[in-house]
From TrEMBL:
PANTHER family: 3-KETO-5-AMINOHEXANOATE CLEAVAGE ENZYME, 3-KETO-5-AMINOHEXANOATE CLEAVAGE ENZYME-RELATED. Its cofactor is Zn(2+). Keywords: Metal-binding, Transferase, Zinc. This is 3-keto-5-aminohexanoate cleavage protein. It comes from Actinoplanes subglobosus. InterPro entries: Aldolase_TIM, BKACE. It holds the Pfam family BKACE. The keyword Repeat does not apply. The keyword S-adenosyl-L-methionine does not apply. Signal peptide: none annotated.
Length: 277
């Protein structure tokens, strides 16, 4: 592995715009952020959208406009979140796939999520996986805990490889209720990932203060990186994150130090089996 896929997750569904004014919530803010992050070295954008009051939404019209706007304004691979917020019903989360993204997330199990529960039933996961196969959408399997990798093994064994034939997982570490954001936990995951189909790739993100340890561990274990204000709001002790660009720039710096420079969107497409534009 010679390069690094850098995914930016700029918005998420958890933070409020009033608390975090730098959070991109309108399509114009999201597109401007995505453009700047692409110029810095990001190749995928993981997208959650907001309504006119900056609340999380899975509105179909807005999702379609967002996919179109990001495609027009950037060369990034557009990955819609099918996770939404912990309050979104399964039907709305499945309908995210109707908005025509190139990639979408697919979380591999239920996890406590702070004081809430992020529900991902087996039948729902199977629905997401098989619909993505049918529609030519490349999944990113989101893993919040070790056993979810075993569920992924079961899913692939029963229902086959995803569209494009390549398996890519994203370790979301340090969620209160999920696995810890530590090098030891990342290495444990990496050992299980070795039992997935040959060539399986992984990226990792650490929530909050686990951001740096997870980033460094992932680079040294041959993994890729996800960064952004969905996951991290503090840059260093007492220093709030100023922008998504600040987080992407830091990730690019670490990737270059590790002699694994950022992959372009075209290179990332080739690696992950996402068709060329
Ligand atoms: N907002 C979280 C409850 C995803 O994007 O697929 C779920 C999440 C995962 O962010
Ligand atoms: Zn997300």
């Amino acid at each position: 592995m010679t390069g690094t896929v850098i995914t930016v997750a700029p918005t998420g569904a958890e933070s409020k715009k009033v608390d975090v004014p730098a959070l991109p919530v309108t399509l114009a803010e999201l597109t401007a952020t995505a453009k700047e992050c692409e110029a810095l070295g990001a190749s995928i954008v993981h997208v959650h959208i907001r309504d006119e009051d900056a609340r999380p939404t899975l509105d179909q019209g807005r999702l379609r406009d967002t996919v179109a706007g990001l495609r027009e304004g950037t060369g990034l691979i557009v990955q819609l979140s099918s996770g939404g917020s912990v309050h979104d019903p399964e039907s709305d989360r499945l309908a995210v796939l109707d908005a025509g993204p190139e990639m979408a997330s697919c979380t591999m199990g239920t996890v406590n999520f702070g004081d809430d529960v992020f529900l991902n039933r087996w039948e729902f996961i199977v629905d997401l996986h098989t619909r993505m196969q049918e529609r030519g959408i490349v999944p990113e399997y989101e893993i919040f805990d070790l056993g979810q990798l075993t569920s992924l093994q079961r899913l692939l064994g029963k229902y086959g490889l995803p569209f494009g034939g390549h398996v890519h997982v994203d370790l979301v570490m340090g969620v209160p209720g999920g696995m810890p954001g530590t090098a030891a936990a990342l290495v444990a995951c990496e050992r299980v990932i070795r039992d997935l189909p040959e060539g399986t790739t992984f990226s990792a993100t650490g929530i909050g203060r686990s951001s740096l340890p997870v980033m460094l561990a992932s680079l040294s274990a041959g993994g890729h990186l996800r960064v952004g204000m969905e996951d991290t709001l503090t840059y260093a002790k007492g220093r709030p994150v100023e922008s998504n660009m600040q987080l992407v720039a830091r990730a690019v710096g670490f990737a270059q130090l590790a002699q694994r420079p950022p992959l372009t969107p075209a290179q990332t497409r080739e690696l992950l089996g996402v068709p060329a534009r």
